[in-house]
Task: inverse folding
């Protein structure tokens, strides 16, 4: 992994938490969306866990190029697509088994209603980039309250990763 100017090397607590969640939740033949892909580390981990197809996107042009380089370095370009842009790119996607998003709280809260539409029924939404102090505000989001059940909450230092299951359409 060559991080260049993108986020996600595995050294930050949120990336480590997300990698553990990827190992716990991604299954063979899953379709996975990686929102805010950064270096592509989570997309690559999902592919290595057996995901059949992964779609990653990031608003940063450096991140897109860096993720593509890392994906090529690891021989995973056959199953991972990365595009530059925001959540509007999801219109190009099918409904996913798992949506990953390791972004900051404000962005997560803003895009939760959109991300939730791309998680299949009984699929998983896995979030990080959250501090312990963000927990209640995040859990109180109407999209999560109305559509998801919290399955797992992992901590490292002051950081959290949350895994949800979609319980209604």
Result:
């Amino acid at each position: 992994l060559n991080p260049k100017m993108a986020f996600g090397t595995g050294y930050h607590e949120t990336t480590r938490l997300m990698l553990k969640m990827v190992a716990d939740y991604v299954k063979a033949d899953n379709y996975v969306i990686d929102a805010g892909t950064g270096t592509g580390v989570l997309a690559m981990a999902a592919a290595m866990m057996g995901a059949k197809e992964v779609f990653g996107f990031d608003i940063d042009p450096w991140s897109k190029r860096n993720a593509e380089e890392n994906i090529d370095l690891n021989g995973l370009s056959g199953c991972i697509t990365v595009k530059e842009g925001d959540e509007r790119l999801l219109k190009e996607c099918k409904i996913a088994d798992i949506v990953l998003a390791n972004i900051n709280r404000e962005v997560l809260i803003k895009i939760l209603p959109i991300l939730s539409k791309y998680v299949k029924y009984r699929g998983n939404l896995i979030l990080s980039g959250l501090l312990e102090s963000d927990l209640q505000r995040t859990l109180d989001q109407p999209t999560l309250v109305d559509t998801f059940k919290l399955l797992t909450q992992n901590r490292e230092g002051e950081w959290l990763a949350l895994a949800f299951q979609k319980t209604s359409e």
